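Journal club prep, notes for RB
We'll compare a predicted complex against what the paper describes. Inputs for the glycine case:
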Amino acid sequence: MKILVLGSGGREHALCWKISASPLVTKLWCMPGNAGIASDAECVPIDISDHPAVIAFCKANQVDFVVVGPDAAVAAGVVDDLDAAGFKAFGPTKSAGRLESSKSFTKQLCRDHNIPTAAYAHFADAEAAKAYIREKGAPIVVKADGLAAGKGVVVAMTLDEALSAVDMMFGGAFGDSGAEVVIEEFMTGEEASFFALCDGEHALPLATAQDHKRAYDGDTGPNTGGMGAYSPASIMTDALCRRVMDEMIYPTLRAMKAMGAPYKGVLYAGIMLTEQGPKLVEYNARFGDPECQVLMLRMMSDVVPALLACADGQLKNLSLRWYDDAAITVIMATNGYPGDYGKGSRIDGLEEAKKVEGVEIFHAGTKLQDGHITAYGGRVLNVSALGKTVSEARDRAYAAIDKINWPEGFYRRDIAGREVRRERGE
Ligand code: AMP
Ligand code: GLY
């Protein structure tokens, strides 16, 4: 089977790494890919937002199956266009992808189907939004309605912060995404990332995971796409996972099917574990990055039949096996991320780092330049490891990082710290 993966991040590297291990695969491409992905797949320098070019490549190379990585590709309708051209793809249609691309769509769906989430109101007008904020008081959460690269959310601890967030969003800070805002009740609790494969009707939960959204140690600094992740996450007990499936995932699948937009692909629920039980923070219509990296490391089964079953509506009879080992990934990012950062700095020591037991290094923003791995993105490397415990996996990942020489990069030193303390019974 010939497979094409779309995307170029650490998530896509982990997917390519896992897919390339499948005995079903005879050829694997990644479009556009990156310098690390090139060891697991043939990289194809085509812009994935150019759907006619993607389809022409699939035709010319008789691609059997396309795996869509990033949210932007889902929102642009690449799955719809591939389907219209006769190509099978893993991922939701544009219409089903509204679960991520429109926060107001998802909030409405939650309201209509009693899915537990923060109370909210939706505004297309700044003054009305501000009046509502004054009425509710702080803390309160202001969100741009559309996709904003994970940066369209302001958790405002004061009234002033909330009011200026409204001005910023209506002032065009996120382009069209900010033309409408959702204002939400502030929820408190620990967050977890929940993933379920979906085939339009059935869902199969994946292993549990948590990520670290803030840039710096101690969960300080600005929000990022994610600075590290680990799996399993002991806080997500079997009972909680069942509640998430019953109270969120299945009602959502039924609702999407009923409105003629069946959801196929991976559904990623951001969960807040509040005192009243699990509540939905948001849905994403794709794998989490970096959560995908730890899930692929822990998955024992072949991933290809599972991805195909989503597209074919055949999940019902599928089960997945997982290694008992724990996995961690630590992101190395370019100084300045998630703000402005430089490009073109050289990274050394990767070969030595890879030799540490249990370690796998996934690449995000890298290019091969004059024979050297060079940083070309915000998040650049995902130093990942398996171990018998989260503590062992963490020690291995940080031992590998110690061998990497990249003065222009930074990383958090406390990834999975909370889980390590839990393991020690602290
Ligand atoms: P989102 O992009 O919707 O996942 O939001 C980004 C982050 O903002 C989440 O991971 C939470 O940490 C935080 N957040 C979002 N909504 C709320 C809320 N209603 N209450 C508290 N924190 C929130
Ligand atoms: N790790 C968070 C995300 O993928 O959105």
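Talking point for the session: Residues 119-185 form a domain with the Dna Ligase; domain 1 fold (CATH 3.30.1490.20).
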